[in-house]
Design brief:
homodimer; alpha+beta; 8 helices; 10 strands; DNA-binding
Chain lengths: 236, 236
DNA sequence: GAGTGGTCTAGACCACTTC
DNA sequence: AAGTGGTCTAGACCACTCT
């Protein structure tokens, strides 16, 4: 683990623990932090830059570095983004059910999103996820078998991402998402217990590995009353 | 304008113009780029880092820097994010109508989001926006008069953001967004021409200046069939 | 082994904020 | 004037990929 990452983790924990809550929520100046963490100023900047990107701190040139005021009470949630930049507001006991798990010839539209050839073999996975035994998302996922190999039911019951990163040792790097609202369909009525006038939040995602290859295309439909997505973005 | 920003703009333009489309979409190595742009390696890295954050390029350690394959055809759209990290997929002639424009005592819940005191004066703005004369979003905005001063109808007809940045010279830095689907309400039926079973995509936003102050709280409700949001995020 | 990106340093100068 | 963050440098060493 690089030094700037260790420093980032350490300072983030201090902020969460309220160690910098005095003096207008101000952090020590960069030079002092450098001395404390025994690093150069560039390395400290790299650590602090990550916190800025996450919306945890902000800097005022000529003034100092400050913790961002988090308006809502749920600080933990606001600080707890998942790997792709979104956090979920739902908490409870999670479980999932696999509706379909197969290898298919990749349809044309999906092949173009995954940058593979039409009819290349892909896993097709359909899952329902539950919170406290209530369904909240219907998820259709496609992954090229040439990249993600050896999937089975056991892995699907747990975390596919963990399998990819820890067993296959393929580093995940980024994701493109499109979010939209939609009327619910027959599938949504039955799988998500929705009635006709209740909408869904649909998320279309393409996820990439560090080597630039798309390894996942997914469409997920969330119950409108059980899910929201948060995002923080900084101008550069 | 800092050097790394100039280099970033320049390389971004080259990519858009297809100047790096040969050799597997590979860019020259960093040292060569440093020589060409007459800068240090750290500065070049800073420029390239911005392109990585935007999902325009990716790097393979020990291999090179490559342009990200953009699966859909609309390259321009994918490269043309707005200041808060989202881009819109709708195009056409834009216009807007102001439904309400007043100064009010700030309600408690909104004051807590803007980090101001209850009953502090805030502008309240309600606008409908149209594309090709079709309504697509109903937008309620609150701004503290202590920060954003001198708003009038002329400014509202144009761009509030332009007014803030160019006339008031207040640098905008970041925004927090929450996205959710919702059933349409009476207001939506009338202002967005929606029927009862048609949903909306609701976006709640708090926007911040460089000095860390929240200057805008807004709720906007978009027609489900006219709007979607895209986002790109990188693991760090 | 050659080439590439990833990290880190020690110091310099600048621009901005506050007193 | 003092203190702070913003930018930039020239070079070092490492880890990874490909042949």
């Amino acid at each position: 683990m690089p030094k700037y990452k260790i420093i980032y983790d350490s300072i983030k924990n201090r902020i969460i623990n309220g160690e910098y809550n005095k003096n207008n929520n101000q952090l020590p100046d960069e030079i002092s932090l450098c001395k404390e963490f025994n690093c150069s100023r560039m390395t400290m900047k790299k650590a602090l830059d990550l916190l800025v990107l996450e919306g945890i701190i902000f800097r005022k040139a000529g003034h100092g570095t400050f913790i961002m005021e988090i308006p809502s009470k749920n600080k933990i949630n606001a600080l707890d983004n998942d790997l792709t930049g979104f956090s979920k507001t739902v908490t409870g006991k999670a479980s999932s059910k696999i509706i379909d798990f197969n290898i298919i010839f990749c349809p044309k539209e999906i092949a173009s999103k995954l940058n593979i050839k039409e009819n290349d073999p892909v896993y097709k996975i359909i899952r329902i996820r539950y919170i406290d035994n209530n369904p909240f998302v219907y998820e259709k996922t496609f992954m090229p078998t040439s990249i993600i190999d050896g999937l089975n039911m056991d892995i699907l019951e747990g975390s596919i991402y963990k399998y990819i990163e820890e067993i296959l040792k393929l580093p995940i790097s980024s994701a493109k998402k499109i979010l939209r609202a939609d009327k619910s369909s027959e599938l949504d009525y039955s799988y998500l217990d929705l009635s006709k006038d209740e909408p869904v939040l649909e998320v279309e995602q393409i996820a990439y590995l560090k080597n630039g290859k798309a390894f996942e295309y997914s469409i997920s439909r969330h119950r409108y009353d059980k899910f929201e997505f948060t995002s923080f973005s900084v101008k550069h």
